[in-house]
Design goal:
The complex is a heterodimer of chains A (146) and B (83). In chain A, 35% of the residues lie in helices and 36% in strands. Chain A has 146 residues and is an alpha+beta fold. In chain A, a hairpin with a 2-residue loop joins strand 7 and strand 8. The radius of gyration of chain A is 16 Å and the shape is globular. Chain B has 83 residues and is an alpha+beta fold. Chain B has a single domain, classed as Ubiquitin-like (UB roll) (Roll), CATH 3.10.20.30. Chain B is 30% helix and 28% strand. In chain B, strand 3 and strand 4 form a beta hairpin. The chains are: A alpha+beta (146), B alpha+beta (83). At the A-B interface, helix 2, helix 3 and strand 7 of A face loops of B.
Chain lengths: 146, 83
C-alpha cells in the first residue's frame, strides 16, 4: 500500500501502470484523479496547505477503514500540497480488488473521506487576489452515505 | 499546563502566527477559545464563529468539549477541503 503526501507532480498513467502491475491476483482496478480546475477563468494557481504529521496519519486511518470494510488487494493514495498550476494533477486514488464492486465503492469512500477528513485547505490565487475555498455542506453530507 | 497551538488556513492568517506555546488552565478546546479570545482581538476574529472551526487534539479530530487532559498539541482550522 502506497500513501504519499508530496509537493511534487506525479504521472497518473505511470502510477496506475505500476499499481496495476503490482496488484497480482486482483480482477478489478478503479482509479480516480483530481485535476486543478479553474471555474472563474481568472485563477493563476491553487495553493494547498496541509497539517504535516496529521495528514499522513489521517490518510492512513482512512485507507485502513476502506481495507476493513471492503475486500481489497491494494490501495494507492497520492495527495499533493504546495502551489499547483491549473490543469495539474492534485491527487489520485486507486483500489485493487477481486471484483469491481469492492474497488468502485472503496474508491468512492476514499474520495469522500479525503475531501472532508484529510487536513488540507485550498486557496485560490487569481488576478484579483487570493481566497480560501469554503468546504461545501454537500461534502460533509456525503460522509453520511457510508 | 503548557500546550502548543497550531493554526491553519484563514485561522492562521487572522491570528498572525502558525504556532505558539501557551500556558493555560483550559480543560477543553472551548475553554481555550474563550481564554484566548479574552486575551487579544486577533483570536476573536479567528474564533468568532465556532461552527466554521474544527479542532484536532494531538493530531486527532476532536470536539470542542473533548477534555484536553495532557494534550501536547491543539490545532484549530477551518473545515478541510482536500481531494
Amino acid at each position: 500500500m502506497r500513501l504519499s503526501v508530496q509537493p511534487d507532480p506525479f504521472d497518473m498513467g505511470a502510477e496506475l501502470n505500476r499499481f496495476t502491475n503490482d496488484a497480482s491476483g486482483a480482477g478489478a482496478i478503479v482509479s480516480f484523479g483530481g485535476i486543478v480546475r479553474d471555474d472563474t477563468g481568472t485563477m493563476t494557481a491553487l495553493e494547498l496547505e496541509h497539517y504535516p504529521g496529521m495528514t499522513e496519519k489521517a490518510i492512513g486511518q482512512i485507507a485502513q477503514q476502506a481495507r476493513d470494510r471492503w475486500q481489497l488487494h491494494d490501495v494507492l493514495i497520492i495527495h499533493r500540497y504546495g502551489r499547483l498550476q491549473v490543469g495539474a494533477p492534485i491527487m489520485m486514488v486507486a483500489t485493487a480488488a477481486r471484483h469491481r464492486k469492492d474497488a468502485f465503492e472503496a474508491a468512492d469512500f476514499l474520495m469522500d473521506y479525503l475531501k472532508s477528513r484529510a487536513p488540507f485547505w485550498k486557496k485560490e490565487h487569481g488576478a484579483e487576489g487570493t481566497s480560501w475555498v469554503d468546504a461545501k455542506d454537500s461534502d460533509e453530507a456525503a460522509l453520511n452515505r457510508w | 499546563m503548557t500546550v502548543d497551538l497550531v493554526y491553519f488556513a484563514w485561522v492562521r492568517e487572522r491570528i498572525g502566527v502558525a504556532r505558539e506555546t501557551v500556558t493555560t488552565t483550559a480543560r477543553t478546546p472551548a475553554d481555550l477559545i474563550a481564554e484566548l479570545s479574552a486575551r487579544d482581538p486577533r483570536y476573536g476574529a479567528a474564533f468568532g464563529d465556532v461552527s466554521a472551526l474544527r479542532v484536532a487534539i494531538d493530531q486527532e479530530l476532536s470536539d470542542f468539549d473533548t477534555p484536553l487532559e495532557n494534550a501536547k498539541e491543539v490545532a484549530f482550522f477551518p473545515p478541510m477541503t482536500g481531494g
